[in-house]
Amino acid sequence: MPSNGKRQIAFVVDLNKCMGCHTCTIACKTLWTNDKGMDHMWWMKVNTMPGRGYPKDWEQMGGGYDGDGKLRLGRAATAEDYGKPMDFNYEEVFFGGKGNAVHLAPRESPGWGPNWDEDIASGDYPNAYFFYLPRLCNHCGQPACADACPYDAIHKREEDGVVLVLDEAKCVTCPEPKCMQGCPYKEIFMNPIRHVAQKCNGCLPRMEQEVAPACVRQCPGRCVWVGFLDDAEGPVHKLVKQWKVALPLHAEFGTYPNVFYVPPLAPPRLNTDGNVDESKPRIPLDYLRSLFGPEVDDVLRRLEEEIERKRKKEESEIIDTLIARRWQELLGPFPKDPSEVTTS
Description:
By secondary structure, the protein is α+β, with helices and mostly antiparallel strands. Helices cover 24% and strands 13% of the residues. The strands form five sheets. Strands 8-1-10-9 form a four-stranded mixed β-sheet. The protein has a two-stranded antiparallel ribbon with strand order 2-3. A two-stranded antiparallel sheet has the order 4-5.
């Protein structure tokens, strides 16, 4: 990994535990992007997969690095890719005196949105499938957004690997969003009112006071871990480096992302008689390979083997870690409650 920093913060998301509740999304939204010009900014969002995601079709927008490590610019997401913020007819419904003749609805269709294709399944009956994919900035080992910025306004911190827009004043003079073109995950946004680039900051003000990022701490499904990759005793290191059951999303983009995913298992396929069909998995392996690479085959086999060990009453440190019976295990080196710290 071409990161020259001292340490690297990383996240692990178990897709088998994410239930699509969007608590992480709202925790992030209310904390960081509830301001003017940030309506379209969802630094944390939960996409239904397979799906077109947010912004729409982000996987086809380009960016990142080619096989020789050369930066390749894609295109920046447009307002149409995000969809217009929805404006609802509250006054008409609540104060218009029309009773049941009207209902709450957006004044015009936004065209797209962060949950536009939520819960829309793929596959054919009786083998429909989908899964949820939480997405946030990957705080990449080689951040294409920083390399693409012509003004050196984006910085990767040596002490923890967090990627920040460090100098917003330089963004004001930027004629076009090169950083957005460079990021293949489209996790950097432009504030049209302030004309500055903005992105996930890793909840750095919280981490500096030993409080876990909001998306980690608020997750009711206990599916997100945070920690440093070099902490050999921590669950993030074990899941990624030791047991190798957590994989990066689209590693072929060449940015060395530091958000890792435990790939989704699924119920067995059924035949037309309702009996189990073990000839192939319900979620096509080709699709999972397109997201997580060819290593996903071995990871799924390993997970199934470890689950079977538990069924036989045998020990499995991997499964015990993924269950996370104590939610504090998810917090890594950031165990403090937000109420325990003071703000200045």
